[in-house]
């Protein structure tokens, strides 16, 4: 981080002699405001907004008074950065600064929480991402937790500073009670925030964050904040999804989200809709539906089958481990022309993956029926082309390997749609 900072930080000065602030101090918590951006930029709009955004970051963390509540402060910050790409790295650098050598546990937790919320909407630039990743990695171990027994001196210092502040205040008793109550709201262990941020950073670097023209909403801010504690149904592992689901639907053997979205596509006439799975649903409607599904709700006012179809593809694509686990990938692209061998691969999958995949194939087999193909114009080859990337993931960075494997992935999925017997799945939910 220091090496990157020496080349990219907009070095600040202080005092009447305008002495340059050291990199260490530039990347340490600051109670005051900043007069210029943290990062070097020639964009006038970014220069103006960066300083105002730093005040908002301080407001969210509780280090500065604000008229808005924290939810609206977060919305304002995220909307600024979502709309102005040049502010994104600036925000992440500001958060790195304000969560470094921060002695207020409440403020520290809030800073990490804001980073987690932001990563749900946009990624840092590729140039800065690896440095942010390194910063987050250094906080993955519980040794960095605010409740760590290795930090008694920090706790003592916080209490001493708070007492001094209270003594100077004429309303010391009332102020002491208020501040003590605030300090008790310390949030989660820092390692919990860091682990969540690390996973979100990996995902947002690939997906690019929030899509569409509709600006971020308070509901999305709340969703991003709640997902830190309650993992989303999107981007999690199948086992985690089923574990969460067990509390609500203990008898279900398949993911609720998979079954509900699949049935929703069919109920809205998706099997007779031209270009289904090829034509994307309205991205803002897909985002809105995603929020609902993450709360275990399916709205009743939908009319376009392309919306749940797009979200279903997204759910498969964002699974932490694909429906066909990576350890079976080589077998799949090796047996892409042999129906028996392809079916054998399916039979050898872990039970949960096998059930989810068979439901997926059974669902596609409905669309592959000639009576439906005549309406959708999506034959088995088209279905395999648009759906293979959602259940098989090539790990190579070589464009030639990716291109060659894409053809094999499509052929493998086509084999399953045509030859796999999925009749047993009809009675399973």
Automatic annotation (TrEMBL):
InterPro entries: MyTH4_dom (IPR000857), MyTH4_dom_sf (IPR038185), Rho_GTPase_activation_prot (IPR008936), RhoGAP_dom (IPR000198). One of its GO terms (molecular function) is GTPase activator activity. Residues 167-177 have a biased composition (Basic residues). Gene3D superfamilies: MyTH4 domain, Rho GTPase activation protein. It comes from the Eukaryota. Residues 160-186 are annotated as: Disordered. One of its GO terms (cellular component) is cytoskeleton. CDD domains: RhoGAP_KIAA1688. Residues 236-424 form the Rho-GAP domain. It holds the Pfam family RhoGAP. This is Rho-GAP domain-containing protein. It comes from Anguilla anguilla (European freshwater eel).
